[in-house]
Amino acid sequence: MLCRTEMLVEKPIDEIISEFKNLDLSKQPVNEIQKLMTQVGRVSYMRIVIHKGATFMRARPNKEDERFRNKSDLSFKPQIFNKTYQRASTPNQTMFYASFLPVIPSPLEFNTRIIGALESLPWLRDKTTSGYKRITFSKWLAEEDLNLFAIIAKDEFYTENDYTKEIVDAYNNFIKQEDVLFVERSLKYHKFIADEFAKEVDDDTDYMISALFTETVTQNPNIDGILYPSMRVNGKGFNVAIKPESCKKIALYAAGECSIYKRKGQTVIGNDSIVELDGKTDNFEFAEIPNYRKECLEQLGVKTIDELI
Description:
Blueprint lengths: L1 E4 L7 H10 L7 H10 L3 E8 L4 E8 L8 H4 L21 E5 L11 H9 L9 E13 L3 E5 L11 H14 L4 H19 L9 H10 L7 E5 L8 E5 L7 E14 L2 E11 L10 E2 L4 H7 L5 H4 L1
Parallel strand pairs: 6-7
Antiparallel strand pairs: 1-2, 2-6, 3-4, 3-5, 4-8, 5-9, 7-8, 9-10, 10-11
């Protein structure tokens, strides 16, 4: 569904974007960011519906021998522990993060486990290090339709995924029916926001603009969350950030513990245990499965984890 918002004051969009870019985010200028967002004025946006039955994959790293045994361990971070800015969440609003691949087939389709692992373990992206870590993946299904605010992908991601192309094309076809100034304003603002979602960061405050943008648009009770391309896989897959109150629309149906073996730029993921669930169970125990550690290590050219470390 395509919509647009309207404000009475329309400050030049180039001026607004310039002011955004000149902010010192290390000083946490929350009020300034929020003020600029109210000055954006009349722009279009896109709301998409993720239908019942869609699958989301969430990843959570394990600390040493840590094991997760209940649904809350694999869901969103409790607000009491939510102290930092993330790409789509603020200290005031925790979110359920997960990776998502649309049904539309693509020759570039990425496994959602890979997206989740790369998002949650920065260590995997460092091709100079080797080691061993554990991670738990959880599979969630939409039991009701979800209304998500779609981030219009940055230009570099346009050809990376058929679903991205479909969203961008639909958005462009919609706004071209409007007046030239409205189109220009919308495109410039959404390009800026897309770049904020896609940027590399050094500190959690660098996420402030995308996080506060998400907090603002999800105040709409008809919006369950936000969908944006995963910059960790260069737009080949997607992430969702869903409001805690909208998590009643999704349910946990499976989880698995995995070992990640990494030798610089080469990574192998081995399955260690699994549990199948009915979407209603809160507490569970994993069933061990053959982990083929020897075979995983051999793929990396080592015999033991000590050699890897």
